[in-house]
Here is the input.
Amino acid sequence: MRETNDPGIRAAHDYVAERIPETPRLGLILGSGLGSFADEVSNPVVIPTGEIPGYPVSTVPGHAGRLVFGRIDDVPVVVVQGRVHFYEGYPMEQVVMPARLVAALGVTVLVVTNASGAMGDHLDPGDLMSITDHINMMGTNPLIGQTWGFDRFPDMSMAYHPELRKRLHAVAEQEGIKLKEGVLGGFMGPTYETSAEVRFLKSIGADAACMSTIPEVIASARLKLPVVGVSCITNKATGISPTPLTHEEVTETAAKVEMKFRRLLRAAVPELAKELAR
Here is the structure.
């Protein structure tokens, strides 16, 4: 167990550990409209997150609120089918609980996914983007005031693990899937960004915008849990899109590319689960 000094994580860990057949090796956190990937899990054991002590309940459409345990291509996995967000009113400590819990359960690699709006000129709705780095514009950090994990001042230079990204790109090429790259910018939400905010974020190097993911990646860095990330580009950002943005548009576009997304991740799981070089 990666954390031993947090009674909340220990209680959640003990509840889940008693109900699963084996230790998961790889964890996946699924974003808006991408929850159907959980259907790829064989012999699933499903635990509603509302039953887990201290676990926050997702209130956003497209986030089912379940942990799905089983195997993908003989790799033991846990799929977080629906995350929680800071804009739902939860403190950051609870927003990052899914990442902390799967780490406590024993995963050695975490895959984070999200639906994002494109700011980079090379990105279009329907694209899949490997996250190379991020810019935290949420105005806070999940590590503030916290003492759990290994390092109070974690290095973020490899927040999205280079070797895992290389493996993901190799799988995408084998599958004939065009996988683009970009920097993720994270806003607090729940409002979509203004045109001025999009121009600013683009000017400082961001290629796509979201309202999630970054807190989980920061928490994982503190836990020394390697991460790889995939954004599903669902729309052009404000000021670039010719129409007003809606959550329905985000989930609808994610649904249109879900088979490509599922094919990429299913093929990637065995490669991403291989032990990383020390």
Observations:
- The two ends are 20 Å apart (CA to CA).
- The longest strand covers residues 109-118.
- The chain has a mean pLDDT of 90.
